[in-house]
Amino acid sequence: MELLQLRYFLALAESEHVSETAETFHVTQSSLSKTLQRLEGDIGAPLFDRAGRNVRLNAFGQAFLARARRALQELEEGRRELQELVSPQRGLVRLAVTTASILPGLLRRFRAEHPEARFHVEMIDESEVENRLRGGDVDYALSTDETHSGDLEQTVLLIDPILLAVPIGHALADRTSVELRELAGEDFIGLKAGFRKREVMDAFCCRHGLEPRFVYEGDEPARVNSLVEAGLGVAFVPATSVRGDRGVRYLPLVEAPSRTLCLVWSRGRFHGPVAQDFRDLAVEYTAAIRIQDTGAITS
User: Fold this and answer.
1) Residue numbers of the domain that contains 265
2) Which residues, 6 or more positions from 281, have their beta carbon under 8 angstroms from its beta carbon?
3) Long-range contacts: 18-23, Cβ < 8 Å, 24+?
4) Which of 47, 134, 227, 246 has the highest Cβ tally under 10 A?
5) Residue 37: pLDDT above 60?
6) Which pLDDT belongs to residue 293?
7) Quick one: angle between helices 3-15 and 59-86, nearest 10?
8) 3-15 vs 18-25: helix crossing angle, rounded to 10
9) Is the confidence at residue 215, as pLDDT, over 50?
10) Whether residues 225 and 185 fall in one domain
């Protein structure tokens, strides 16, 4: 059994299309098919049901899939482990985030201490966190959901209160705090339904008898502050998302909800020296953050 055979098998299992998989590896369809036939010969069973150029895993393929994926993951972790033993300061940290509010400052601080370290960062939905960690695709997830899975570990980095963002000149702009009932009739800017932060705030508003009237719903959290500054409405924003917008005031909400920022990782996965240092620094960096009543972040 060859490593290339396993790579071809996993790619074809995902795409279910021979020509697409062959193009991915820059080989002919005939070469791909022969390599997979040799794998099936080594195993002693067919792995795919074929229908022209399309294929689908059969019962044998389904049984083999998890072990093939695990074998490649172990080999990849072994390769990374050896690379980082040879060059411990040049490690790669693979990070998935469901919120990027603290990421710029955290990465800036880490790169100052580890200038040769590399990062692969991707934004994902909360629902993807556990699968990405278990699959070995990422080393850590910066998540706004706590996990209760036994095969995952986590550390709570920060409790992040939700504030009300209003444009300068708004009737509430000079207040020191705001009650939710005072927001009836306001135009709201926010994320589309399905985002975790939107779900938390919808539930909070429902409990307090408020149904926000959204004039803008998007999928880019960073855009919300700018739209408030433009005077299009008010918005609920996490304190860690507060920026130096001169045209926005950030006000505490009475009985405000908060979100929990956690760093989550898979128990037993290899983490090289650089990745371990990143976890330690994330704890240290967030422990130094202070959220003032105005919503300003200091450290």
Assistant:
1) 83-157+260-293
2) 106, 109, 110, 113
3) 18/53, 18/54, 18/55, 19/53
4) 47
5) yes
6) 42
7) 120
8) 130
9) yes
10) yes
Residue 128 CA to residue 100 CA, distance in Å, equals: 16
Q: What is the mean pLDDT of the chain?
A: 85
Per-residue pLDDT reduced to its tens digit, 234-272:
999 999 888 776 799 999 998 878 889 999 999 878 788
206 & 276 share domain = no
Kindly state whether residues 150 and 279 are assigned to the same domain. yes
- 266 and 250 belong to one structural domain: no
Task: Confirm if 154 and 147 have CB atoms less than 8 A apart.
Answer: yes
**Tokens coding 253:** 């909400």
Q: What is the count of structural domains for the chain?
A: 3
Residues 109, 115, 120: CA angle, nearest 5 degrees: 80
Among 79, 111, 128, where does a domain finish?
Answer: 79
Q: 162-186 pLDDT, tens per residue?
A: 999 999 999 999 999 999 999 999 9
Task: List all residues 6 or more positions away from 7 whose beta carbon is below 8 Å from its beta carbon.
Answer: 25, 72
Residues 246, 184 within the same domain: yes
Smallest CA-to-CA distance from 259 within 144, 141, 98, 96 is with 144
Domain boundary residue among 54, 79, 104?
Answer: 79
Is residue 12 located within the same domain as residue 131? no
Whether the predicted pLDDT of 294 surpasses 60: no
Asked whether residue 299 is assigned to any structural domain, the reply reads no
Joined tokens for residue 110 = 């880490």
107 and 96 in a common domain? yes
Cα(227)–Cα(225) distance, integer angstroms? 5
pTM, entire model:
0.66
